[in-house]
Amino acid sequence: MSNRSKIFFKGVADVSPLMIPVVPFGIIFGVLAIDLGLSPITIIAMSIIIFGGASQIIFLQLFSAGASSLIILSSVGAVNSRHLLYGAVLSEHMSGFKMTWKIIISYFLVDQAFAVTNSYLKKSTDKDKAFHSFGAGATCWVIWQITTIIGIFLGSIIPEKLGLSFAVPLTFLALIVDDLRKLINVIVIIISGLIATLGYEIIPFKAYVIVAAISGLIIATILTKLKGSNNG
Amino acid sequence: MVEWSLIIYCGLITFFSRYLMIAILKKEMFTDRIREVLSYVPSAIFPAIIFPAIFLDATGDILIENNPKIFASIIAITIGLVSKNVLATIFSGLISYWFLIFVIFN
User: What's the whole-model pTM score?
Assistant: First the structure.
């Protein structure tokens, strides 16, 4: 096996354990989208064009609630703003990559691919190290497309009273449950959640996601500042 | 019918938020302070999806009493904190929800 394919398959192997929670997530997305009346072609196109679980779920929820394009786009932007956080780390290790590689890796870079890419690039000096990110990202992509299609098929079989849509908040809950150990996070979570819930009907244009998120970040900015000045 | 242009724009936003971080952002562009605040993005945005899905009923009214989703979420949080496992969190919540709606509340 060539060096490149060796590195590619190392990426595949590294990311595979992280794919386990992605399987139900992808299926749930497909099932929900069918429930909301989207056509299978549209659903598959979303998974290919957007290729981001949180973005796609937000899209579905706001779209089905009748939100405007502007609200949907800004909410998807807010969901994606967490990616900017990774910038400092990754750009450093990828500065030598060709632009084509940067584009390919960017498209594939879901959270799971980021996690393994980051830890690999930190220690690798191999000139073909881009193939690791490629392998990890392509794995995520294939799993996401397959589970979307499974969800599309199951969507027409699974009875609605099973309440599978409840898996959506549970999935996001699972992503932040560890943050409940930290006081500032708990305060931010409660404030954002309350604003979204109480504002769901009141805040115009279904802007509750973006209003709650910005409020939460403002609170986080204030609280971390207070904490910092207490320590200093 | 979903507007195709909307899907494509969402795809572009998602792509560029990732591309930006690889191609343009430099380490020195982020102070520790900005990084600290950005680390709260998941805590700020995910509750906006979680809370309404738990506390609101199908018509958008707040539902506190006899709401099986609240109990199931508490169980999921407890399991999540103890196990630190994403799958265990999701499935403990789902299974307890099904138990509640099909056995207890039925």
Answer: 0.83
